Amino acid sequence: MESKSQYQRKTVIVKRGLQYRYMLFISVVSLIAFMLVIVDMIWTLHKVSQNHPMIIEVLDEVFSSIPLMLFKIVLYLIVVIILSVVISHKIAGPIYKFEKICELISKGDITQRVYLRKGDALDELRNSFNMMIEKINTVMRLNDEFRKKLKEKNIEVAEINRIEKEIKRVMPDYKI
What we know:
Layout: H1 16-51, H2 56-63, H3 66-106, H4 123-152, H5 157-170
Helix pairs in contact: 1-3, 4-5
């Protein structure tokens, strides 16, 4: 299916709840990983300083730069948060589009299709969804043709069988 964009999203946060949870998850995991590295580094330095007391002077100098290290930590966390916004947008944006298209389809407009931007997640789902809607559209069109012929009362059994076969060809597992 062609991926033409109906509109460009101008906001970065399109599904607040989903994106905030995703951003929080990424930030917390990054923070935990960072804390584990810090704890491991401190433990290793402690073990080394016990075996080599001369290194304590060097460690004092390293630990005197803690304010700079804290500033860097804040910068890294800001970068992680920005990246989590971008990554969550790649997932939440397509979900938002699917929701809007599903609302339109549920109101009866089965001409709608989902178009995603290049790089958005859920591309395979988009293809399957659009194919499903196309098949439903075809079956409904065949059904309308069938109704018109029934109204004309000129329909024969062969015509009924032909239309049933066409519906089965389009959607082999079609059930009502």
